[in-house]
């Protein structure tokens, strides 16, 4: 008699090096990649190969992101939910910053944020654990993705289906015919040549390996995104549970002591927190620089610790008890309100610093971060009132994404240049060496400076040509027009350095 066969236990080869529980990510050996998904992923990779230069801030980032989004959300089932569509729109809006702003550091932040928001749109996430693991989900799919694509390719070769070899052959023949006849038409008519050059992507063979690697990465990422849409993991299942509620005194005593500590600090430090110019000038060894930086790092540490305290305390409160709910609201609300005082003081300190020495990227970024952290505390207060933190992780992510878009709309480099130009008009002091390191976003404001300061400030800003439409950037185009109308002269003058830097 033959013994019954049993399914072999799951091994590392099922998902690479990861062992997932069934409630987190079920094993997948049957699903296969649709034809449309494979074609769209290859198309996204080809598009990235032709137009995307990682080192050039341009509309190509948005176009590549849109191709990946179409692959993931338009070629596989189920249909995206309204919430997913909103998240995708937010991710593409963050990529669109690359078409509008010229500051590479700002675009880099937006690209990273777009990756996070897009990953949450693919995988979902309602807990801190789910949102934290969502951005790494694409890197966890290689073994599953290979099987998914192989099964899809096998189906393409059955019956009258389109075979991959045929697709490659037709693509190569089409490109060769367009190149041959296009070159003949270009040589026959200069006007058509200009039109042809502006429409057809220019493949810069100076870096073919790099472009091919970028294209392969985008194609794989697009296919992996489609797979995650089809078979998403449930990382929220890994989130720690709330556990058994604690007795009231077990969490109330630590919170009460923490509230007393915060209240004592705020009461004693009122003169320090809001003393302003007088406190800085009257304290030996204290400068605007360390006065502002010390407040910021205090704020950052207090924010993280308070967030952890509120998140843990809310989980340990017995919500079925009216007395526990009232006590928790009182203690946690007081803690958040006292922390908001620290937020206000840090913002005040940075304002004094900027008024004295002008704006820089670091100072403006610190100010924006402080204001956003203040909003996080307001969300914490709302969570305490509702005695629920389930909505808090997504609310924090939405506020961060919206805040970054608002920061991009402010145009940081342009704003910094404007404030420094106004300060020069009032005081005659300017740090030309720093302004020369700004991006093309600063050109309209720096154009207001008188000569020779204007030419010295503009001489260090790189304004490159845009040979093709997919290299378009609104900030760079605007700067080109300004400098074509009034070219910057050679800079042979020296200017003082801002002592605040």
TrEMBL record:
Transmembrane segments: 83-100, 105-122, 128-146, 167-188, 208-228, 249-274, 294-314, 326-347, 367-385
Pfam short name (any one): DUF4153
Organism, as annotated: Rhodococcus parequi
Name of the molecule in the record: DUF4173 domain-containing protein
Keyword Transmembrane helix: yes
Keyword tags: Membrane, Transmembrane, Transmembrane helix
